[in-house]
């Protein structure tokens, strides 16, 4: 798997704080930027599962996009639907902003 100095730095920071949601998200985004969408999906799914009561909403959208790049439309649709439900449940302004993006991406593949 390709790596980068940035990814190495993020992983070092995660070793000291494995529950840091922003670091986990950054790790997934760096994997994605390296063309490692399968790794990004794994990291994003782990991030989503980290705090089911209040999940990191942007992870759903990024996971859906990565799954689409992997030609896994059915899986992407499931993640996007879960993200829509989570956004409605969380109800914050950020979650509501993400909601429209989740809905738009889901509509584009349905």
Features of the shown structure:
single chain, about 110 residues, mainly alpha, Serine Threonine Protein Phosphatase 5, Tetratricopeptide repeat, 6 helices, about 80% helix, about 0% strand, globular
Notes on the structure:
α2 runs antiparallel to α3. The chain has helices at residues 5-16, 21-33, 37-50, 58-69, 73-90, 93-109. The protein has 110 residues and is an all-alpha fold. It has one domain (5-109): Serine Threonine Protein Phosphatase 5, Tetratricopeptide repeat, CATH 1.25.40. 78% of the residues lie in helices and 0% in strands. The model has no long low-confidence stretch (mean pLDDT 94). The protein has 6 helices and no strands.
**pLDDT average, as an integer?**
94
Our Rg estimate from Cα atoms comes to 14 Å
Counting DSSP E segments of at least 2 residues, the number of strands comes to 0
The figure for the number of domains is 1
Instruction: Tell me about the largest β-sheet.
Output: none
C-alpha geometry: globular
Cα distance, first to last residue?
Answer: 32 Å
- CATH homologous superfamily placement: Tetratricopeptide repeat domain
Secondary-structure element order, N to C: HHHHHH
Strand content: under 5%
The helix/strand class is: mainly alpha
The name of the CATH architecture is Alpha Horseshoe
- Helix count equals 6
Q: What do we call the CATH topology?
A: Serine Threonine Protein Phosphatase 5, Tetratricopeptide repeat
């Amino acid at each position: 798997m390709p790596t980068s100095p940035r990814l190495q730095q993020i992983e070092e920071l995660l070793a000291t704080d494995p529950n840091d949601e922003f670091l986990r998200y950054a790790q997934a985004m760096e994997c994605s930027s390296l063309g490692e969408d399968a790794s990004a999906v794994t990291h994003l799914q782990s991030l989503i599962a980290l705090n089911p009561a209040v999940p990191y909403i942007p992870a759903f959208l990024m996971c859906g996009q990565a799954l689409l790049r992997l030609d896994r439309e059915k899986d992407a649709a499931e993640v996007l639907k879960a993200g829509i439900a989570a956004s409605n449940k969380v109800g914050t302004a950020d979650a509501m902003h993400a909601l429209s993006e989740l809905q738009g991406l889901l509509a584009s593949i349905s």
